[in-house]
């Protein structure tokens, strides 16, 4: 049975929606004043484990996207996609699209955006629209496909009273030609977020639109350039006799040998070739929302909303390896970092929100922020895992949170660069406002000032910049040229 009449919105999802409404109607002046008081980027501590680089007021930040070097942030708004320069914090471009999804191509030369009615492609050099694909059916998700020569668009079921399945449409990414419309029999995607789980070469994908079973589909390219799809395996995650449990999502392991699926009542891992259920994680005291496989495929992270904590299991064996002590705190959410080496958690206790980073090797907690007011409702790590974009109500923040054994240098103004540790060395240029660069060494000049050697080959004096991370352990560099 479709999930239209008995749609379960989990406790966490409902809380998320209420928080979003709360922040949406929060007086901006009050929010901004509070942020200035609690999260000032001009901190006296010149070295820390985390540091706020900047924030933007009066922006949404849901489904925001930034480029690899962090110099540009894209923010969907009610009318435009806003393109921000992160050095000047100025809006460079306003792309006319009421989009709720954004995705780069592999080299960030093109941007894919989608709304419920239209899919667009943009040139990121000129920021001009190069392709527009109006859609007859409601769009849930769009993505690049087949070495970015195709666009894959997943559609929802607009009329839940009709027994028609969701469709997957495949388009030519250069000329916008519709190549195929595939009816995903038995799949009824009628909510956000929804997605398909694709393999790396996109010859197979997972679906879970009936909320009971995971289906493996195989995609075939025909001689005429069109596509067909067939179900090759079905994994029964939810017992059909259990009317109170619904399959939430599924994903491939990175080697595509296993499949992880989860519902509120259980987490299951499957052999992707045979369909064998390798193990099941289930307990009457658990209710999972959500569940995430770590990027390195070592662990499973599950937010257990009944006990207000998170649990971690070994992905290979299913054995529980960690259970976070909530210390009478309410867990808002927990997410992996880019590499799967750390977990970011958000807790609430007696009106105070606390953001913490957990090291998965030692399972130690490091608190990076406490606030009386804010909690994040959207988070996105940078590709290098050293910066974090947070949305808190209508205020978007960028934090520097380096990984272990990393020292990052940031600036709150333009600062001089020199080719050695001292003002007697040649001035080679400027490090712009709000830059973030790696430090690889240190030295002290004849007047006793500390200097950082940067990975770009230049030196900067330590008292005019901010240092975040493991900076005191950097090697002394005696070769000054």
Structure write-up:
- This protein is mainly beta and 481 residues long.
- Among the domains are: 156 residues, no CATH class; 62 residues, SH3 type barrels, CATH 2.30.30.
- It is 5% helix and 47% strand.
- The protein is built from two helices and 40 strands.
- It has a six-stranded mixed sheet, with no helix packed on it. It has a four-stranded antiparallel sheet with strand order 2-33-32-31, with no helix packed on it.
- A hairpin with a 2-residue loop joins strand 32 and strand 33.
- The termini are far apart.
- The relative contact order is 0.11.
- The N terminus is likely disordered.
TL;DR of this structure?
By secondary structure, this protein is mainly β. Among the domains are: 1-62 and 311-404, no CATH class; 408-469, Roll (SH3 type barrels).
Please specify the SSE layout and strand pairing.
Elements: H1 11-24, H2 28-38, E1 47-48, E2 51-56, E3 65-66, E4 72-76, E5 81-85, E6 91-95, E7 101-104, E8 110-114, E9 118-123, E10 128-134, E11 139-145, E12 150-155, E13 166-172, E14 178-184, E15 197-198, E16 204-207, E17 213-221, E18 227-236, E19 247-252, E20 258-263, E21 266-271, E22 277-282, E23 288-293, E24 299-304, E25 309-314, E26 320-323, E27 330-336, E28 342-349, E29 352-359, E30 364-371, E31 378-381, E32 387-392, E33 395-400, E34 407-410, E35 415-418, E36 427-431, E37 436-444, E38 450-454, E39 459-461, E40 466-469
Parallel strand pairs: 1-40
Antiparallel strand pairs: 2-33, 3-4, 4-5, 5-6, 7-8, 8-9, 9-10, 11-12, 12-13, 13-14, 15-16, 16-17, 17-18, 19-20, 20-21, 21-22, 23-24, 24-25, 25-26, 27-28, 28-29, 29-30, 31-32, 32-33, 34-37, 34-40, 35-36, 37-38, 38-39
